Amino acid sequence: MRVVCTTGNHGRNVGKADKGRATTHKWDSYEHMIYLSLREILKKHTNIEFIIPESPLIIYKVQGHNIVQTHGDTVINVGNPGKSLNMNSINNQINQLNSSDLISPDEKIAVVCVGHVHTATTQILTNGCFAMINGCLSGTDPFAQSIGIFSNNPTQVIFEATEKYAVGDIRYVQVKGADNQSRLDAIIKPFQGKL
User: Fold this and answer.
1) Would you say residue 94 has pLDDT above 80?
2) Which of 85, 108, 123, 128 is the most exposed place for a label (fewest CB within 10 A)?
């Protein structure tokens, strides 16, 4: 199993001088600390590989296809699917990556995976790249409510890749209402304490 980790703005160390979403402190975040801890805890399991980059994005291969993964708060700006998507802008950003030193001149990016914007969607760009924009699992947390979002549908995008197709079957796992399904408590026991 390969676990690819990328950090975003949610776990950034706000005690740093740079309190924005700059890429320079991505790996000095709480997420990064968790990734490193999990890697060490699971080290005895030789069938698990953690890929933890010290960059705001990672390009890796799945079934021979190049996948770009980034949180979505920096580097690749996909817009907000809940409001507006500029498909031409996303296409041009992928074209810039394809012509950069980050990827071999005879290869292209097949899929770009981002999150951050909390609304799931999948688009095929004119350059043939799939834009996989993941949803969120946080629901209507206090931040969402502070910007006027009082309802959403927490969703995660799962897709398969085959040798022939970078993106095969796609599934949107919708978890709204999962907190009220007691049968799920048998899978993961709810935490009853205080944090």
Assistant:
1) yes
2) 128
